[in-house]
Please model this.
Amino acid sequence: MGQKVHPTGYRVGTIEPWSSRWYSGKKDFGKLLLQDKNIRDYVRKEFGSAGIPRIEIERTGEAVNVIIYSARPGVLVGRKGVRVEALKKELQDVTGKTVHLTLHEIKRPELEARLVAEVIAEALQKRMAFRRAIKRAIQTTVQAGALGVKVEVSGRLGGAEMARTTKERHGRVPLSTLQAHIDYGLALARTTYGIIGCKVWIYKGEIERGKKIDYRQTQSMSGRTERPRFGGGRGGGRGGDNRGGRGRGER
Model:
């Protein structure tokens, strides 16, 4: 089961904050939940080029506050704020309430798993070799300061007749540690021979017990810093096992 649990959902309430923060009774809960999904889908569809890994929604009795984290906020704002005003008007039509928009710039997009997955997916759509796209994304992320990266790509890789899965890992990615700040992202590459799924896990360090991740300060590495360990086998923290053979990550 440990391989099937969503890393973000696994940590909600421990170190991960809720991305939707509001309360409702049974009567309106389903409607508001669907409304949140429509808001996120609309923003990502219309402003996909802005690099948006996370959208938070807060509700009060009279208004809806939409907090957007973007690697390129200038795309959202537009010239003289024209695009952001149009977005606010569209979201008011969707929700039927007053909408307040808050934008936060992401200074290091190489450390955002969803954006890294989108970069890999875009490279695959441009017919880049999948192994080269994966290795380049991992190298860029590690150079930005990540303590560990794992990438998994599934589908008809290279136009093969049968779908398959390939994985690459660098450093540590402790998925079962609740205090570990694991950023997870998924993107789809829509190629001529089918859809290829790209999953990315990025380990950014440990969060102190009793504290939660503040995404407004995600660009500073959280908790204690650790030196990345390479190799990925059982007992292969340095690329070898106890019997002197090769670690699982090197085969």
